[in-house]
Amino acid sequence: MLKFFRKIRQNLLSDSNNGKYFKYAIGEIILVVIGILIALQINNWNENRKKTKIGTQYLTEMRFELQNDINQLDFYINDLKKSIKNQEAALNTKDISKLSIDSLSMIIATINLDFKISELTFTKMNNLGITSLSNNDSLNLKITEYYNSDVVRLKLAMNYIFNDLVKRTDFYIYDQNKIDMVYTYSNQKFSSLHNQSEEEFKNEQRTNIIDFIQSINGRNIVQYDLSGKEYSLSVLNRFKQRTTALLKIVYDELKINDSKLKPLPSFQSENE
Length: 272
What we know:
Elements: H1 2-14, H2 18-91, H3 101-108, H4 120-128, H5 137-175, H6 181-186, H7 198-214, H8 216-257
Helix pairs in contact: 1-2, 2-3, 2-4, 2-8, 3-7, 5-8, 7-8
């Protein structure tokens, strides 16, 4: 091809036909420009294809992380609902002295909410300097808002809740001297560490729990614990709504490139 153009250029120069030569030169320049533009277009297409492939990969990873987070949230939400229901039922009993030791234990039972939301994919994005996973600006914005705002707020709330739990746990184990919390929560076998029979110990434990619950300090702690569980439940429910909303948007984006994508699993509704 280059020899062909060189031969034409030489013929035009030898004929001293400057007009035709300039036309040829302009045409050659145009051809070079078109070639460069085509090469740039191919390069851009390849780059966009690579970007789309990486975006799809990360969106897929994010999808399964969000699904696992929702399953984890459902586990703790169910635990909280059960604990609140049992605690309220026991507190609403007309004569608390008639409750069994198991029911009494539900009144002072705490729940450990020390769990972590997955941020692995978003962290990888930041480490690689990736600011978007698709051409959908709305999706990219929602991903950023979710991890930089919603997840941060959840961490702050969970940190406060967990620190509060640590304080109550420390009080039950180290400060008060009426209820054997280790025996109550660990379901360990009755041991020789106790200086009375198992029946005598349970009767004493039952009496001590009743005395504690009916004391001013005990009532305050029980009511505060119940309020904390209700607050925790509202926090987790709100966060689950945001996680579910983001998951659906991520799934819809993946569905565009894969019409055979398996549908999302059904998640527990807030009213269940």
